[in-house]
Amino acid sequence: MNNRVEWLDIAKGLGIFCIVIGHNVVPQWLYDWVYSFHVPMFFIISGYFYRQRGWRETLAKGWKQLLRPMLLTILIAQALMLFLYVRHGFWSGPPVGEWLYGVATMNGLGYTRGMWFLMALFWGKLWMCLMERFHLPVLGQFCTSMSLFFAGYVLCQCGEEPWFFSRGMAVPLFLCIGRWLKQESVIERGHKSWVLCLALLLVAIAWMFPVNISGYVLPYGIGSVMTAVAISIAVLVVLKKASEMSAVPSKLFLYAGQNSLIILCVHSLIHTWQIVGHVWDALPQIGYVYRVWCWGVFAFFECGFLVVVVYFLQKIPVVRQFFHSK
C-alpha cells in the first residue's frame, strides 16, 4: 500500500461508513446529508487515480478489483438465501423464475443491490476507455460525459435495466472531475485559509439543506449534480486538512478506506441476510421516534463492528490476496 494517498484513504473511509449508515434506518436529516455526496465522492476519488489504459488492461483490472469481489459476494448471499428458501422442505421464496431472473439481471438482489456501485464503476471506466480511443480533448470528454449522464438519467426513468447500465453512464462525469482535480491540484490548494473556510461553509450548508440524490433522483435537475460535486470537493478539502492532524479517528477512517471493498462486501452480506433486523426484533419494542434514533446508533455500531470483522478476515492470507490484488 506504499502508493496510496493517505488523505484519500481517509475520505474513502468516511464514504464507506456513510454507505453503511445510509443502508440503515437513521434520522431523515442524516440520511439526506449522507446521500448528498457520498457516492459522487467515491467516483471522484476513483477519477483522481484514473489513468489511461488499453481495453485489455481495463477489463483485467475491472474484473480483479470490481467484478470478481462483487460476483463472489452475490454468490455467497444468494446461496444462503437459497438455503433459507428450501430449509422447510418446500420452496418458500418468490417464484423460482422470478428469483433467478432477478439474480441474473441484478435487479432482484435485495440489499446486495448495494454492490451496484462496483458494476457502475466498471461501466464508467469502459466509457472512459472508449472516449480515449477517439482521442477526445478534455473539454470534449466533459461534454460527452455530461451527455452520458443525462442519457443515463432518461434511461433510468424508463424502468430498471439489467446490470445497472444507466447508473454506469453517470460515472464518467465524476471520473473526469476527479482527474481534473488532480491535474489542477485543486484539493492541495485547500491549505489556504479562505479555501478551507469556504469548504467548511459548504459542508455546513449541505448539513442544513441537504440535496438527497439517491436512486438517480435529481430534485433540482443539474443543480442537484453541481451541488453534489461541490459538497464532495468541500468534504475532500476538509478531510485533507484533517488528515494532517494525528488522531485515533483518522487512523480508523484510514483503515476503513484501505479496506473499503471488503467492508462493502461484508456489509452487503449482513444486510442481505437481515442480521441487523433479527437483532433488532429481539430487543424490547419502543416508540417509532426512539426506534429510528436507536437504529441510528446501531448504524454507527455496525461501522465499528465491520472494521473489527474485516481486521480478523485480513489475517487470512487468501482473503487479503483476493481483495488487494493489483
Structural description of this entry:
This protein is mainly alpha-helical and 326 residues long. It has one domain (6-16, 28-246). The protein contains 15 helices and no strands. It has helices spanning 6-22, 28-34, 38-48, 55-86, 96-105, 116-133, 138-157, 165-183, 193-208, 222-242, 248-258, 260-272, 275-281, 288-313, 317-324. It is globular, with a radius of gyration of 20 Å. The model has no long low-confidence stretch (mean pLDDT 85).
Essential attributes:
326 residues, mainly alpha, globular
Short description:
The protein has 326 residues and is mainly alpha-helical. Helices cover 72% and strands 0% of the residues.
